[in-house]
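In practice, a research group might receive sequence data for several interacting partners and want a quick structural hypothesis before committing to experiments. The following worked case mirrors that situation: the sequences arrive first, and a predicted assembly follows.
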Amino acid sequence: MLLERNADDAVFGHFGAAAGYALAARRAMHTMRTGPETWKHIAVGQRKWANLNPAAALYDRPMTSEDYYDARWVVEPFRLFDICLMTDGGRAMIITSTERARDLRHPPVLIMGVGQHNPSCDVHQATHLAGPTGAKKAGEMALRMAGITVNDIDACEIYDCFTYTVEITLQDYGFFGPGEGKDWFKNGTLEPGGRMPVNTSGGQLSEGYYMGLTPLSEAAMQLMGRCEARQLGPGTNTKSPEILLCSDNGGILQTHSCIVLRRS
Amino acid sequence: MSEVHKPIPHINGDNKEFWAGCKDHELRFQKCKTCGHVRWPASFICPICYSKEIEWIVSGGKGKVYTFIVYHVAYDRAFESDLPYVVADVELEEGPRLVTNIVGCRPDEVRCEMPVEVMWQDITEEFSLPKFKPRSQTI
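A structural hypothesis for the assembly, expressed as tokens:
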């Protein structure tokens, strides 16, 4: 869809999701002074989680801030490591009643709340590129249904098609104010040992791209306690997880889903 | 020479007046006769008030860069020789925002909110593309 030669924008050489999100990220650089110095914390921090995950495509590839800055531009302001992987593979999850789940081999993970919001508007006319995106209302809905606030969240699994997506999603969920991500992400906030772990498998940037199932399956696995070296808790010097927040979005920030999960 | 291999506009019932205007080096947009909203992309119904009554207006061709990106990778080989090139979302004074290219300056000189004006690139006998270049700030 995004790469069609007969799309209206193709005549100007405009193609693809990276370019669409880059337009949003550039606007955010203008309105809230974000940019690569914020996004590097996301790319580098998630890679540290991937380095603990043998299933991650980039498991044996450490990354420093210098590596991030040295990577080539793809669609500026995005460098190579701002962009998710392309992965052949699949993920599956079983969703069933708590009654049936009792007989399964693994302890079930419970859905506390869900929310969706779809700004829908085409990126080229959108006014939500630098937030609030659909994440704001979807997050409010999910947290209200769960009867909690962001202060009750132990870790996040955020749809990370691009580094900027992680920033704007966490901002719209209320973890920090507009433009405050630069400070919030500093000092390893989202990394192993950090106070708010994010994308603990390495995410789509460093583990593999399975659309919304990369974050969602990781959240379920973490709450079941099946994550071995990267397991949240004492082994990674993080809080033992009771409640996790997950996101998914589609189009160019046009659709958004939020789901809150808890350990049974 | 590579220009001929680039995609050409895909005409449909909604946008044919826009591209006919481009051929005459005019930026034509639909204006809702009911609520006054000037819209792009073209459509048969107003996205604000749902009225089907329209008139076509001609834009003065002045606007500013709402956001922009610099391509360092050619997703379509026809654009390889243009690298690095700028795609921008330009907000016209009449209201609509248009995806286009910024030309006439280096990519690293482009800024959000930079004032720009339309210039025309005739790509075939049938089609001309509206692109934008920096304008000096005057009233």
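Before designing any experiment, note the following. The interface with chain A takes residues 6-10, 15, 40-41, 66-76, 78-79, 82, 84-85, 87, 89, 96-101, 107, 112-113, 123, 129, 131 of chain B (CB under 8 Å). Chain B has a mean pLDDT of 93.
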